[in-house]
Amino acid sequence: MSAPRIKELRRAYGFDEVAIAPGDVTINPDQTNTTFSLDGQNFDIPIIASGMDAVVSPYFAGLMGKAGGLGVMNLEGVQSRYEDPSEVLDSISKASPEEATSALQKAYSAPIKENLVGERVKEIKAQGVRCAVSVTPALTKKLAPLAVEAGADLIFVQSTVTTSRHISKSTRGLVFSELLELINVPIIVGNCVGYDVALELMESGIHGVLVGVGPGAACTTREVTGVGVPQVTATLDCAAARDEYTRRTGRYVPIITDGGIRTGGDLCKAIACGADAVMIGSPLARAAEAPGKGYNWGMATPHPALPRGTRVHVGATGSLQQILFGPTSRTDGTQNLVGALAACMGMIGAFNIREMHRAEVIVAPSIKTEGKHFQRGGQ
Amino acid sequence: MSAPRIKELRRAYGFDEVAIAPGDVTINPDQTNTTFSLDGQNFDIPIIASGMDAVVSPYFAGLMGKAGGLGVMNLEGVQSRYEDPSEVLDSISKASPEEATSALQKAYSAPIKENLVGERVKEIKAQGVRCAVSVTPALTKKLAPLAVEAGADLIFVQSTVTTSRHISKSTRGLVFSELLELINVPIIVGNCVGYDVALELMESGIHGVLVGVGPGAACTTREVTGVGVPQVTATLDCAAARDEYTRRTGRYVPIITDGGIRTGGDLCKAIACGADAVMIGSPLARAAEAPGKGYNWGMATPHPALPRGTRVHVGATGSLQQILFGPTSRTDGTQNLVGALAACMGMIGAFNIREMHRAEVIVAPSIKTEGKHFQRGGQ
Amino acid sequence: MSAPRIKELRRAYGFDEVAIAPGDVTINPDQTNTTFSLDGQNFDIPIIASGMDAVVSPYFAGLMGKAGGLGVMNLEGVQSRYEDPSEVLDSISKASPEEATSALQKAYSAPIKENLVGERVKEIKAQGVRCAVSVTPALTKKLAPLAVEAGADLIFVQSTVTTSRHISKSTRGLVFSELLELINVPIIVGNCVGYDVALELMESGIHGVLVGVGPGAACTTREVTGVGVPQVTATLDCAAARDEYTRRTGRYVPIITDGGIRTGGDLCKAIACGADAVMIGSPLARAAEAPGKGYNWGMATPHPALPRGTRVHVGATGSLQQILFGPTSRTDGTQNLVGALAACMGMIGAFNIREMHRAEVIVAPSIKTEGKHFQRGGQ
Amino acid sequence: MSAPRIKELRRAYGFDEVAIAPGDVTINPDQTNTTFSLDGQNFDIPIIASGMDAVVSPYFAGLMGKAGGLGVMNLEGVQSRYEDPSEVLDSISKASPEEATSALQKAYSAPIKENLVGERVKEIKAQGVRCAVSVTPALTKKLAPLAVEAGADLIFVQSTVTTSRHISKSTRGLVFSELLELINVPIIVGNCVGYDVALELMESGIHGVLVGVGPGAACTTREVTGVGVPQVTATLDCAAARDEYTRRTGRYVPIITDGGIRTGGDLCKAIACGADAVMIGSPLARAAEAPGKGYNWGMATPHPALPRGTRVHVGATGSLQQILFGPTSRTDGTQNLVGALAACMGMIGAFNIREMHRAEVIVAPSIKTEGKHFQRGGQ
Questions:
Q1: Which is the CATH superfamily of the domain at A15-363?
Q2: What mean pLDDT comes out for the span A77-91?
Q3: What is the second-level CATH architecture of the domain C15-302+311-363?
Q4: pTM above 0.90?
């Protein structure tokens, strides 16, 4: 079997396979700074709620904004299909397990009402917070300008895999340079993985990149199509592209790791690998205030021929405040995400997110057999 | 333990350990081309049904052909042992778990009737599709000419491990160059793994190579004899041999990954690793139209001294149409295999199978602990 | 994805992933010497009981000392908060699982009484053994001198992550060189991981280094904050730092692996990786004489906003004598730790701990499927 | 953590992590030769039954010999402690799980009766087969000459870890060169691992080397003391030593892999890695004729202070004939071990054991998730 020219396989890593090494200096957590900045807009915490119907309603977007983060409202979900989405959300969360998929298919068969786009944006803005909305590439040119006109501050253009070049004979692919001329607010684009694609997206002029395609082995994209890159490797690659782009141009385009983050530990690892912020869904779907009422579901669910998501019971385990800032009695890392981040920064000696990018990340597989290690009080 | 000349071990990979990285460009799935070509015969989809009695009856071969693929009928199974195989198939699928092995042993103790070979071939041809049959090397010279005479379009010569040189004192080994003079239809040979063997087989003049020996750890060949090569490595090695053979001769001999494929994701990975097509059994045994009626079993099962297979319940989960093309409500990748392939090709930017061979494949172990990742609608 | 300047990840190992190779010479276990020495103080066995309330009471410290090891009493736990700690210890061990966390939080809300520090130290000394106490950096300057004045022989300064440089605006970080002038007994500092930090700590003049930060994947520090280094790698790195420090200065500063050790096998691996001694909690919390009465809990538990530990039932499985020296009928490695160490030293041909540092350690993952291997009687 | 002089860890492999690649040529299994030769004594099959009381009685040794292999009788077990061992064997196999350990301890507290040594040897010889016995180093000089005098053909000197140099102040270590002058039958020595130790043992003049120390993660030696080397690596290293020794001296000293072999697959892997034969216990303890009556236990069990073995239920699953030669209806590789070996040799194209040493062995971890692969009939 000694064969020439055999394709070589690169080893990729996921969150469960790595850990962060402590630093040479430690810092009191209360002196760390978790601020995240995107094209001049500043956020106290680097946490963005995913544009999923089970996570972000206009009300939840308001809560996220007041908490110092950002909630992204999906412009193609129930919020823009129903005058009163609470009813249809109820029909999903109250459906029996057997009815769940058909309840989802029914819910998303209603058409998008363009007039609702502006209404929802204003609903968010009325709470005194920034408004972010998400659209798919196909509907961006139609819906994004309506949102911006109504006051949206950031536009997220998202599909499972996004590149700066999409080939289609049916529709002309979205060209980001053209979109940038059309709307005058920051545009965040994704999801992508890989150094080259991230670099190309940044070169198109957009303001942020979402990182993550099929990150987990349990991810349906990976199960169904084989496509996926574990998040640690995806984040490391895109962070390298961002640093190279900054070196070439002086412009800093943040990258946001989206997908696969379940705990504070995962969040910290994403940032230690180079993420400027994270986008999370399920951890926030557990908030009592989330519209999913203890459930979460993907936005690709209604696809009739090749569904890649279903309704998942996540449970309503606490308030958004607890999930983000504690206090908590849980030791599984699903609550007080910001406290965990500050504690991590203290242990690795990072004053801010950019310094955290310099942390050492090691491969330390998740063999769940070593005994519990008991901690002492911090310094 | 610092020792010289210690045998070195090469790392091999299976489907569960790898993933496909998205490409730099994306393509609308409806613009991708899944055509597969073998010695001038073209197939719309690169999916071949295994020559197993639980999978391919003449009727099922007809369905596969009409769907654009190929069904291979086993010339040494019940179809050529019984005038009416439906009865014996029933006796297997209706046997209790305790009786299954003896039902199988009884079923295969009946002799092969040479007159049935031609009959079954004509049964398949009558449906207006190509006819492919499989034989073991020992019976090839006897049965293959009968099949070709009756109209068979392709001959699959298969054993657990096939090389171009087999040493036996009892019978003279099958010499492929001699076989090629005897029959004038394409001959596909396997199963093999390894660069050198694949190259040697191609050099013998045959028209296709089946790849796969004991691919999975659960594979009985590997459990019983220790022999086996995971399919990703096997496919990469044989694809390299094919490319080298093409470079030397200009003739393109397709390789077909056979074994270990359970989902659309596995199928996509096999092709991304260099397969031109795949041969699958169990995923198609789940079709309502399959003769196994929800069961599958191996063809080596009746071996009296060293059995390496048994009857397995796979369930009849949908129509062949659904399994190949959807629509489906399953998210485990076992249905709409062609849709999954097209979606994958879109994400990696491959217009056709040959371009898909250039996809990047990464090592991304299947640690089933990362949270579900929810997908957005496609572009 | 061929990208330059991507952060590289180093592979780290835990106890479950390695094994010790036997030596070229074997020694009768009764000829091996397990003595451990720290700044001139000698101990018959290299085992130190963790400064945890469930493990070390003054009485248990006496037992550990008489057994030839060392028990470290926590100066910030129940022993210095309550005149009679037995009552509050009872309230924790007798609490129902639901009440455990609140029982812990209540127990640790009582203030530290400085007068009890000296009393407990004298209680230990009265048993004719050395007295070791542990403090966190924040309280070291206040409590350590009181303990030394009362007769303490060793001071352990411990926090989750300790470096020689801690940055805080609220309080001035503990400077070890200053502490060394304040008190005149050996100071052991930790926990740390990493060559550079260990070297810097040794250069500050302290007398021992505790190694271990978030060693296991199940460790809450790693789950919650992502921070942690598996113990094999942590020990190898710090041992290299010790050897380099000895080479430069001639002074030998022992390193003590603390955390993740469950069995005699783990203990042996830690020492084969370079540890001079080990600090263990849970294995000793199983002693009938331990104050936790079959339970163990971490000292960071009461942290209100980000708890990283809880009460764990470990069971009282035998006497301290059995756990350290046998005899035992258990074959899981949790009893007769010293016998296991001597047996290991015999098999690798090491007369003493320093020689054991030269053992070959191999990566041999813990795949728990190979059959039981039955042993023959020893030589 | 960039640190110099950190101890490096070599990766070691066990049976579950490797597979054998098929060869470039295949051979009919009936043309393969499984003969094994040791210092001029020839055996039809390379399978040796372990010197364990649950496996080899004089009667079972007779069966193994007639089957073409070898059964080793333990000279320090019940056979030489009791006039009629059947009673005490019954007391062990019929003890309840709770009583098993004390039944073992009681059984082995009876003294060894020197007069029984010769009696048992004669009992074996009377069946017309070769007689092999095992002793520990400490009793070798006393018991081995008695056995040889009575007609023993081979002496196995075994302890957990054997080197050519054992240091002890209580007793003078066994010197193999002296032993060779004392007795004039082949001496097989073990267990060892590692190139250097194997080479040194061969240089002492002995006639065979047993390979294996704590091979599995579940092995109690490894759990208790951390010591152990997975069998694939141990076998590869010792095979390299044998080849080097042969190169230097022209004398061929076979190595026998002992421990961790559960199936025909494991057996084949051991030989493909370089073993000349295998020693197995549990697979044979399952024979209806084995004295353990469905149970197995280690010979170190009675050790009072640090037991490393216990009674294990293995079940009596078939006759010795079935286990060695089939026929079988089991597909888990535990029966027809010789048939499996011949099938393996056929697939890798090896006419004999020495040619099998040249097979390619690959790392192919045992991820038990790929679907069953169904086999076709052999060539």
A1: Aldolase class I (3.20.20.70)
A2: 96
A3: Alpha-Beta Barrel (3.20)
A4: yes
